Each structure stands twice: as C-alpha cells, then as structure tokens.
Amino acid sequence: MNAEHPTLADVVSVLEDLYPPSTAEGWDAVGLVAGDPSRPVRRVLFAVDPVADVVAEAVEWEADLVVTHHPLFLRGVHSVAATTFKGAVVHRLLAAGCGLYVAHTNADAAPRGVADALADLVGLSDRRPLVAHVDDTERGLGRVGTLDHPTTLGEFAERVAQVLPTTVQGVRVAGDLEAPVTTAAVVGGSGDSLFDAVRATAADVYVTADLRHHPASELRERAVFEATDPERREAGTPFLVDVAHFASEWPWLAYAATDLSAGLGDGTVTTKVSTLVTDPWTHRVGGVGR
C-alpha cells in the first residue's frame, strides 16, 4: 500500500475486513458499486444515503470515494444511463473520478457497526446482539443490554431525542412515560420484524425506526394483556421508542470513518462524515397540541 495514497482496492480491503460481505443478509446488495480499484484514494465521504445531494457534496469536496449505508441498487438493472435518477448518480460520480461503496446489513451486524453506535449513544452497557450470527457473540442484528443509569421511559426518550440527529418526525413513544426502564434493545433502521426477539429478551424498551401501525399496536396490546402486575397493566413491556430511519443509522458513520482511517494507517486518507439530513420527510403539519 502506498503510504500516501492507498488505492481504491486497498480501501475496499479494509472496509471488507470491518464489514465482511458474507455477513450481509441474503437479499442485500453490498460492496463496490462504482469505481476503478487501481485509482488512488485521498478523500472518503461517509453518508447514509447515495442521493443526489450527497453526490453533490462529494464532488464539491473532491472526494475519491463515497461510502454509504444504503444501497443505490437493491435489484438488478439493465441500464445505468443518466436518463434515470440513479443512473445520473452513477454518471456524476464517475465523471468526478469518485467511487461508491455500500456497507448495509453487514455494517448493521458488525462490532462498532450501526447497532453498537446506536447502543453507545443511548447508554447501553453489558450488551449482546439481539439476534446473534451463528457462533459469534459479537456480531449480529441489534443490541440488547442494561442502561447505564436506570430512568423513566419519558427521560429515556428525551435522551434519545437529544443524542440523535434532529428530523421532522422527531421521536415517538408508546408506553407510560413515568414507568421505570433499566434494560433496552436497539435496532438501527426498520425493526418491527424483530419484535419476537425483543420480547424474548424481556427488555423494558425497544428503540428502532419505521414502526408500522399494526405491528406496533399488536405488540403493545399483547404487552399490556400479559403484564404480571395488575395495578400497572398499562406499563406492560417492552415500551416503544420510534425514531427516524436516517437518524438511527447516522451515528455509525463516525465509527466507520475512524475505523477505516485506523485500518489504512493514520494520515493516508482524509475522511469526512456528511451532516446532510437525507431523511425524506421535510415538514410536519398539526400533531400533538395543535
């Protein structure tokens, strides 16, 4: 590896040590999307979404590589012509000499990945994967553990709101705000498919994103119905803290930037974490207290 400028192949090698593609979900599309492996890399921009605004930021900053969490292509395509919005992204990147790399569910599961970054921010210790990969005590989807300080659901939700990027959605909560919470589970991104795993841990509260009406309603109804304390049936656990998808995954970017730099050798590349809010929602009308 050139001490000053590693090649794109060098950078990809470090990224795939951190986030092995073999640990991605079977439906996922991770890895190098665009770029010449032989080209030198001086600047790497990290972002959640490979959208036009992020590409514009990368081009303006003269990045040689953009690393995103979300894939640009999840399904097979027959053309990347600039006549489509995704094709235009590819063309603008390549015209600027900038590559694109994706670390998605493999980054969700990795040590110091999406789940660990979220767990650190909300104050989760003595933790383990919510759904562990086979024969791996550190790698797996989500995290579950003990809160650094016992608190109430309301205070915990306030902490979540303070440590995550601000979005139009904000933070939604289901449960008794005065109820005590001492344990939590977290999953970055869409997490209502893991409700059974969360219930099996007996966590007091579950932090995730994209919670849909019916799964969330049924989880809370079941929790209340099965509560063992007849005087506090409304406090059946797990409570729910629903955040914006983008906000739940953005904290990982700083970990990825730090770990890539360490893997390449300090000073060989310059990294930058995009602060663009790429959550698609732009306004909220009405709501509580209107």
UniProtKB/TrEMBL annotation:
GO cellular component, one term: cytoplasm
Pfam families attached to this UniProt entry: DUF34_NIF3
Positions that bind a divalent metal cation: 69-70, 108, 245, 249
SUPFAM superfamilies, sorted: NIF3 (NGG1p interacting factor 3)-like (SSF102705)
Kinase among keywords: no
Gene Ontology molecular function: metal ion binding
Description of how the protein assembles with itself and partners: Homohexamer.
The protein's name in its UniProt record: GTP cyclohydrolase 1 type 2 homolog
